[in-house]
Amino acid sequence: MSSVVIAWLIIISFLLPLLHVVLSPALGPWRAPKETRCPFSPRVGWLVIVLFLGPVGWLLFMAKRRAQPPAAP
Question: Is residue 14 within 8 Å of 27, Cβ to Cβ?
Answer without folding.
Answer: no
